[in-house]
Amino acid sequence: MSSACFRSARTEDNMDTEYFFRLFFSGLTRGSIYALLALGYTMVYGIIKLINFAHGEIYMIGAFIALIMSGVFSIMGMPTLAILVLASLVAVVYSSAYGYTVEKLAYKPLRRAPRLSVLIGAIGMSLFLQNYVLLSQTSNFLPFPAMLPTLPIPGPFRGLMNSSQLVIFITTAVVMVILTVLIKFTKMGKSMRATSQDRTMATLVGINVNRVISWTFIIGSFTAALGGILISSFIGQINFYIGFIAGIKAFVAAVLGGIGSVPGAVLGSLVLGMAEAYAAGYISSQYEDVFAFVILVFILIFKPSGLLGKPEVQKV
Amino acid sequence: MNFQEIKRTLGVALWFVFLTFPIMVIQVRQVDMTIDWRWENMIYVGVGTFVGGLLWRFALSRRKTPGKAIPKVVSEDEHVSLEAVAGTGASLKQRLAALWAFVTQQKFRRGIYIAFAVLLVVFPLVNSLYQTSIMTTALIYVMLALGLNIVIGLGGMLHLGYIAFFAVGAYTYGILNHFFGIGFWLALPLGAFFATVAGVLLALPVIRLRGDYLAIVTLGFAEIVRIVFNNWNSLTGGPQGIGGIPRPGLFGIEMNLSMATTYTYYIIVAAVALTIFVVWRFYNSRLGRALVAMGEDDIAAESMGIDITRIKVIAFALGSLWAGMGGVIFASRTTFINPASFTVWQSVIVLSCVVLGGMGSIPGVIVGALGLILIPEYLRAFSDYRMLMFGAILVTMMVFRPGGLIQKKRKAYTFPVEEERTS
Amino acid sequence: MRNKFSVVFVAMVLLTTLVFAGGQQEGGPIKIGVAGAHSGDLASYGLPTVNAAELVVAEANANGGVLGRQIELIIEDDVCQPEVATNTAAKLVGDGVVAVIGHICSGATRAALGIYTGEEIITISPSATSPGLTQSGEFPVFFRTIAPDDAQGQMQAQFVAEELGVSSVAILHDGGDYGQGLAQFSQTSLEEDYPEVEVVLAEGVTVGAVDYSAIVNRVASSGAEAVIFGGYHPEASKIVGQMRSQGIAVPFISGDGVKDESFIDVAGEDAEGVYATGPMDTADNPVAQQARQAHVDEYGEEPGPFFMNAYAAAQAIVNAIEAAGSTEYQAIVDALHTEVVSTPVGDIKFDDRGDAEGVGFAIYQVQDGVYVEL
Q1: For residue A313, what pLDDT band results from cuts at 50, 70 and 90?
Q2: How many CB atoms within 10 Å of residue A203?
Q3: Edge-to-edge strands of the sheet including C198-204?
Q4: Residue A142 forms beta bridges with which residues?
Q5: Looking at residues C89-107, what average pLDDT do you find?
Q6: What is the pLDDT of residues A127-157, one digit of tens each?
Q7: Residue C27 has what DSSP assignment?
Q8: Is C61 exposed, middle or buried (0-12, 13-18, 19+ CB in 10 A)?
């Protein structure tokens, strides 16, 4: 480990800068991937204060359905672009349907229950969905086709990142902008914010809270499935368990950024991704999670409600 | 149940057929790129969800209007006797309720506890090695859940890293035994001590955090502990773990496997009894009440003169102590430890024990832990479907008993006159 | 405790306890346990063993069973966790199995052996490679159809130093008991036997991470001329994929966790040129071909990790019971030590320590989408 550090120090300066920037893009990739998941997390949390453990499973199911459908379409002999578009479309629609159903089934009856009970329900749901896919499909890792289109890399970045990374960055940015616009300016977004601030009050002013919550889950699952397809395509493999670890990481990222805040989720994800990449690159890869969590603890000690979270107003 | 509801359930069943279509019906065979259409699954899903949906609707409607007559019989007169309803034209439900009330009267309660105690003591004598073995695991989790209950159930602090202290206890015994040959009985207090120290170390920096932020930091702490154990090869054996940890000794008597298992079982029973006793005393102490007050509203508690910092540290320390002790027993039982036993998932399981049983309630937490650990074992009869059903059970339990199996009773000040009536 | 539900619940649990506590009788089918991770993150390494055992037993039963009795499999999940494994082992002992095929992970196997050893239950693992399991001599009941990590590590070191002739290597592992163990043995072997090869980087990676480009960059900047990886195929294909996409073309050498068709499936073109040590000549072995075909016919997909080893384990135990002429522990153990059986991993019998003799190791390389023995 240490010998490697000295070695890289010995090499020329511009190699060092290049190494630094390579790690920067590694971190950016990880961060964007976490962000795609964290966005759904943070939206659901913002509305019903639930850590939706099943979110990672929705991501997994989205990717799985995309894989199955792309298999079906390619057997039917469709062109690549059509497969990409159709399979993604089916996957995204189905994931939204799954998110919607999960909410109706497991969370809606628990609207007035203690928050932790809903959390346990979510954990049960996550376990159920994992084993549902395991039993009806396979336990093996399956190859995921590289469906992402090839984009030209802008000049200065050539050699630092590849095309799929670029696609992921762009998608994350676009999704974040769309979500921000949706929440800031549309009627649905306003209802969401109102519901998040005070559910009873929202009901009183005529907002159909159940509908708002359903839509939140649908949108959250939509982004999760999008993330699932992009990430699986980037990694090139999938099995029934990929949701769990990714879900935990996304949850950490969302909290780090200030849970409930959309830009916060993206910022938190990027910070987490960067921390991991630089820890792996300069210190030690087996301790990358340790450094990520240490940074997390420090940030939270100095900003107890996350990077962009609003400090909670405490009332007695 | 009317026609409208049946029609709606049919709609739900069709929705599920649609939902499960790509995953349950289509299987792409990667070998020869052909598709298996498993249409039969579609029928199973349709029929299954229709029947299940009817049951679900029925159960939900019952949950919304709890049988009003039943609690009345119980609450109107605590000292209801069986004779009171025997002669009357009471329904079966009312009779059962009356019987229930009769059995659970104050004067019987001690009897019930004693019966449980006796059952626990004779358990290994009438059961197989396997039963004793899983009961030991379950009791270790009872201990963990009781400890975590102090932090979550009373203190209201969401702690997702509790398993780290369990790991500290287990590794204390493993490491000290490996390097210094320290025995079980010395390791037991040492494990508890180190876990408590770890608890205080964690508590100090996170005092200011609340809610999910606290959850994340504790989760991170547990991961840090696990990763360090996983990578510090010279001390912990890394992922290969530490093997050959001796089972607890009894004056140097040689024991075969089933004797040793039974002996370990009795040790954990005694440890759980001790835990229950101490935790119960703590609940009723000044500190315990202060902790409950803080859990309900920390600002109000602080303005009443409670030292929040001190209380939080004590809660973490006391909670971790039991985890450490449980860890030592765990290591001695498995005789082998490696970091695979101390993942986030294990923390989640302990948390589920507490929430499922009923936060803050001692009997609730005990029942929750026993249930959560034993159910997957008994579900082994369903082989592959084991974890699927476990997940479904967790969801169903929470939907139908969101407050946990046995809910915490709030302490209430009662006027001496009314003391007879409340219990 | 005034709650109907909870007491009913407790009563239910206790009742089931009593119901399940029944004993078992002599005669009837011969019971063989199959234990390993069948749910959770490691299920993909445990379930192929179940398939293998089912195929072997179905064939044996179709041919009239063993000793005139049918074989019944008792399949139990241990999630690869030591404490669950002890419970699983106790359950299998209670069910009256004569032998167990499993467990999958070394840690869980070790914990379970604490129970099997005392009860004299023969345990044949298809995948527990930790050398201590056989070399410590603690577990006379233990056998395995896979070579221990140290032999493989040595072979990798030799190959890197002598065949590839590189001067510096990076050693990566997945931090698990198999992967880290294997990586450590390669490293020790390199340092002791081939001091001319410098180990410039020795690192663990985080299993299940979404992106490995940071560590891949680290490998690039360390100037390593070859990469040795200890771990399973999902991580291997992610690392190889990212190495290749960043234009790092150095040789990639791994062990039997990667010498698996699924690696080639998942890694696709990036798998080309990857070296892996694995059991000798499985591809040309008729038993292996037949086993693979049986799996494809029955389950509609290629067999997963450790399938061949598990198939061999099941064959070995079935054969040993037949040869022993009884289900007596000592007789079966003797038969395992003496009887040679043709399996997908070669014609094997077991040495005194329980390691399979005849499970030769070879270096394979992926060429045109298949593993070719070098």
Answers
A1: low
A2: 14
A3: C198-204, C168-173, C226-230, C252-254, C275-279, C361-367, C370-373
A4: A238
A5: 89
A6: 899 999 988 888 888 888 877 777 777 767 6
A7: S
A8: middle
On whether the CB atoms of residues B140 and B329 are closer than 8 A, the answer is yes
End-to-end CA distance of chain C: 70
* Of C348, B417, B44, B404, nearest in space to A113 by CA: B404
Contacts of B408 (CB under 8 A, 6+ apart): B153, B358, B359, B360, B361, B364
Sequence-distant (≥ 6) Cβ neighbours of residue B392 within 8 angstroms: A124, A128
Is beta strand C30-36 parallel, antiparallel or unpaired with respect to C71-77? parallel
Quick: pLDDT tens for A193-244: 888 888 888 999 989 999 999 999 999 999 889 888 888 888 888 888 888 8
pLDDT tens-digit profile of C253-284?
Answer: 998 888 877 888 888 888 888 999 887 766 67
Rounded-to-integer distance, Cα B228 and Cα A206, Å: 53
Q: Give the list of residues 6+ apart from residue B114 with CB closer than 8 angstroms, or none.
A: none
A8 — pLDDT class (breaks 50, 70, 90)? very low
- Residues in chain B closer than 8 A to C118 (CB atoms): 256-257
Q: Distance between CA B153 and CA B355 in Å, rounded?
A: 8
Kindly give, in sequence order, each residue whose CB lies less than 8 Å from that of residue C288, ignoring residues fewer than 6 positions away: C282, C308, C344, C345
Q: What share of chain C is helix, strand, coil (3-state, %, to 5)?
A: 50, 20, 35
What's residue C357's pLDDT?
A: 82
Contact (CB, 8 A) for C81 and B167: no
Taking the C-alpha atoms of residue C249 and residue C359, their distance in angstroms, rounded to an integer, is 31
- ipTM, two decimals: 0.85
From chain C, the residues in CB contact with B387 under 8 A are 39-40, 77
DSSP annotation of A139: S
Q: Which of residues 165-204 of A touch C (CB under 8 A)?
A: none
pLDDT: which is higher, C284 or C209 = C209
* Contacts A240 to C, Cβ<8 Å: 43
Residue A5 pLDDT: 41
pLDDT of residue B86: 52
Closest by alpha carbon to C91, among C72, C105, C75? Answer: C75
Asked whether C205 and C175 are in contact (CB, 8 A), the reply is yes
pLDDT at A109 over 70: yes
- Give the pLDDT of residue B422: 46
In this structure, chain B runs to a length of 423
Chain A residues 233-252 with CB within 8 Å of chain C: 234-237, 239-242, 244-246, 249
Mark yes or no for CB contact A293/B220 under 8 Å.
yes
Q: Is the distance from CB of B159 to CB of B152 less than 8 angstroms?
A: yes
Element (H, E) at C362: strand C361-367
Quote the pTM value. 0.85
Q: What is the model's pLDDT at position B3? A: 83
**C76 burial class (0-12, 13-18, 19+ CB within 10 angstroms)?**
buried
Which three-class secondary structure string do you get for C128-153?
Answer: CCCCHHHHCCCCCCEEECCCCHHHHH
Span between the terminal Cα atoms of chain B, in Å: 39
